[in-house]
Amino acid sequence: ILAELGLPMLNTLAGKSLNINLLHDAVLLGGIAVLVLTMGVAAGFYPALVMSGFRPLQVLKGSYSRSRHGTVLRRALVVFQFSLAVAIIAGTMIVQSQIQYILHRDMGYDRSHVLLLDFNGQHLGQGQAAFRERLASIPEVVRIGGATSVPGRGFGRNSIRPEGVPDEDIWIWSVMNVDYDLLPALGIEIAQGRNFSREYGADSTGSVLINQTAADLLGWEEPVGKRIYYGDSDSVGVEVIGVTEDFNFASVHEKIEPILVSFANKGTSTLSIRLEEGHIPAAMEKIETAWNEVYEGYPFEYAFMDEEFEEQYRADLTFGTLSAWFSGLAIVVAGLGLLGLASYSTEQRRKEIGVRKVLGASMGSITWMLIVDFLRWVAIANVIALPVAWYVGRMWLQGFEYRTSITAAPFLQALLVSLAIAVLTVLWQSLRAAQSNPVDSLKYE
User: C or N: which end of the chain has fewer Cβ atoms within 10 Å?
Assistant: First the structure.
C-alpha cells in the first residue's frame, strides 16, 4: 500500500512512469511472496533456534533474560542499523553540498535571464535578420547574440594544427561558432586580445579566439597574433585575435577542454537574448508578438538557459532528492530499532531502577543514566559509519571534474542528528521508567 501511494512521487522525481500491477505481473507477485517467506523465516530462525535449546528449568527461572548473548545481539543489530542511518545521512549531506556547488558555481558565463530561441529550418533562418531588428526595439531586451550552439548543448569538433607544432601533429578541438555579440550577451570575459568586431572586416573570415585552457596547453604566453591551421592542406590559417576566460561549455563532470571560437559566417541557428531582470513577463509578451509578426503560423518555442542548465544535471538533482528521502527512511528504521531496544532494556532494569529510587536516586539522574547507556551504542555506530561515509562520498565526488571539498560539516551534522534521534527515541521510555513506583517492581522481593 505504501509503495502504491508513494509511486506517483517517485515517478515525478525520477522522471519515469513505473507502475505496480500485481494481478498481471506474475514475476512481481512471486517475488513478493518469496520475500515475505524469506523475511519471516530469517526473522524467526534465530529465536526459534535459541529457544529450542533451553531447558525448562532455565526458562522458568528467566535466566535468558539476563543472558549476555541476547543482549550483545540486540545491541549489535541496533548499532548496525544506526551505522547505516548515519552513513546515509552523512552521504546525503555530501551529495547536497555538491549539488549546491554545481548550482552556484561560476561557470564562466552568466546564464540568468537568458532566453534561447532556435531557428531550425530554412524559412526561420531567412527571417532571422528581420526578427532581430524587432527584438532590438524592445526596451526589456538587453543584448542579443547568435551562435550555432551555446554552452551546455555541446559543440562540434574540428581537427586543427596550431602554429609551431609539427605538420603531422593534428589536434582535435571543440568549435563554437558565434557572431559579434554572443560572448558579451553571455558575459564571457576576454582575458587577452579582443572579441570579434564589425570594425575589422577580416574578423568574419580570418580570425578566431581560443580559451585560456587552449593557450596554456600550447604554452603560448602571448597567443594573440598566433595562427591556427585547419589540417595539412591549409597554408594560410586564421589569426588568434583573443583569448577568452575558461567557461564550462560541457558538464562539470568533464574537464574544461581547449575550444576554438570562430565567427559564424554561414549564419547562426540559436539566439541568446539577455532580458532585463524584473521585466521577464513583459519582455516575453513583446518577443512573442515580434515572433508572430515575422513567423506567422510558426509556433513560438523557447527555453531559458538556466532551466536547461538545471535539466543538464537532472540526474544529479534527482539523486540528491532520493538520497534525502532514503535518509529519512533510514532514520525511521534506526529509530524503531532503538525504541525496541530501549523498551526491552528498561523493562529488564525495572528492579534496578526501583532499588536506585529507594536509595534516593532522583528521576533526572535515572533518566540521564538510561539515555547515556543508549548513547554509547549510537556513538559506536558513528565511529563505524563516518569513515565509511567519507570514503564512499569521496569516491562519488571523483565522478565530477569540478567538485566541492569534503569538510567536517556533513559528519558533525550526521553525528548531531543521530544523537538527537537517540535522545528523543529513548527519552519517553526513560522518563516512564524513572517515574515508575518502586513498589511495583520490588513487591515480590
Answer: N
CB 263 within 8 A of CB 178: yes
Question: What is the residue type of 274?
Answer: R
Sequence-ordered list of residues with C-beta below 8 angstroms from that of 308, at least 6 positions apart, any chain:
116, 152, 153
In the block, which residue shows the cell 509556433? 299
Coil, helix or strand at residue 230: coil
- For 238, phi then psi, to 5°, come to -130, 155
Could you list the pLDDT tens digit for every one of the 445 residues in the chain?
A: 888 888 888 888 777 888 887 778 888 888 989 999 999 998 888 778 777 776 776 666 655 555 555 678 778 888 888 898 899 999 999 999 999 998 888 899 999 999 999 987 766 777 888 999 999 999 999 999 999 989 988 788 888 889 888 877 778 999 999 999 999 999 999 999 999 999 988 888 889 999 999 999 999 999 999 999 987 777 788 999 999 999 998 888 888 999 999 999 888 889 999 999 999 999 999 999 999 998 888 889 999 999 998 888 888 888 888 888 888 888 888 888 888 877 777 777 777 777 777 777 777 787 788 788 888 888 999 999 999 999 999 999 998 989 999 999 999 999 998 888 888 888 877 777 767 666 665 665 5
Answer positive or negative: Cα dihedral of 251, 254, 256, 259: negative
Is residue 208 helix, strand or coil? strand
Residue 260: closest CA among 355, 335, 161, 167: 161
- Strand, helix or coil for residue 35: helix
CB 360 within 8 A of CB 64: no
DSSP 24: G
User: Quick one: cell of 402?
Assistant: 569540478
Q: Widest CA span of the chain, in angstroms?
A: 106
Instruction: Collapse the DSSP code of 234 into the 3-class scheme (helix H, G, I; strand E, B; otherwise coil) and give the result.
Output: coil
